[in-house]
Amino acid sequence: MFKKYFLYKGISFPAMLYSEQGLQEVENKFQVRDDDIFNVTYQKSGTVWMLEILSLIRSNGDPSWCRTVPNWDRGPWYETNLGLPTARGNKPPRIISSHLPVQLFAKSFFQSKAKVLYTVRNPKDVLVSLYHFAQIFRPYKEPVQLDHFLEEFLKGDVPFGSWFDHVKGWLGLRGRENFFWISYEELQQDLRGSVERICRFLGKELDARALDAVVENASFQAMKQNKMCNFSLSPSFILDQRKSSFLRKGICGDWKNHLTTAQSEAFDRVYREQMQGLDLSFPWDEPRPQPSPPPTDCLDQLDRN
Ligand code: A3P
What we know:
- The chain has 305 residues and is of the alpha/beta class.
- The protein has one domain (5-287): P-loop containing nucleotide triphosphate hydrolases (Rossmann fold), CATH 3.40.50.
- The chain is built from 14 helices and six strands.
- The strands form two sheets. It has a four-stranded parallel sheet, sandwiched between helices. Strands 1-2 form a two-stranded antiparallel sheet.
- Strand 1 (5-8) and strand 2 form a beta hairpin.
- Helix 2 (47-58) runs antiparallel to helix 11.
- The longest helix has 15 residues, at 261-275.
- Bound molecules: adenosine-3'-5'-diphosphate.
- The site of adenosine-3'-5'-diphosphate has 20 residues, from helix 2, helix 6 and helix 12.
């Protein structure tokens, strides 16, 4: 009974946590405040990591809030049945998480000064993370084989729809003053520098000690040990953590341990087709081939002219 999905405007949602009425409320009636901070991602792209970073920034690096209040109360997923009343009731400035594609987001956001931070991750790692997550997250259908799950993922036949549409949709807002995007890979590569960039976007100044505290408490190890963000408080009828954990590996490139060459190439074909025309490069993209320099005898000729 937990495996039922329903479609809302062409996007599938698990019925255990979402409802058509709730999604309509969010889209049409949710009152966004100018001081709201939205933590938006396609699932498995680093949502809870960014939520921890935002919570720590808001607390000037002091981990007390993060250690005493579950992350789903600090930054509720406002499109879920349980998250919506929490988001509405939280004290401003609110941190609100969301996996909604841009076209289903609260309409009032687009007339507001509220800020969106969008985190994007190598979709092959998203696929692998989601494949493991779907095995322990009871509202989701349990995937049978990676090969089949890969096909569904590439078609967008998974909750929240296509990764490609999600990313292209949200990144269409880049250039707006109240929109910021960053990749999971950048967070991995330089967490301190990333936190500084996030602070600049939020207009928040942290001194060096506070920055250090954010970095320390948002590390994978620290988060794994914090029951307010490692989901050990989740009831087992929601998350069955006997097989895997929510904070699973926390690395870049785990897809290489799971996808065959053929699967990876099939992924690349769809990726190229779907992302063409998007004038952006991501940390996981192959470097574009540079035009080769003219042969040296041509240069000699140019010199002579
Ligand atoms: P893996 O399954 O690859 O380990 P989301 O929060 O969007 O559901 O994303 C979950 C993914 O982010 C998981 O990836 C999880 O381990 C990873 N993650 C969460 N916190 C992290 C951290 N502090 N550092 C690195 N990865 C983290």
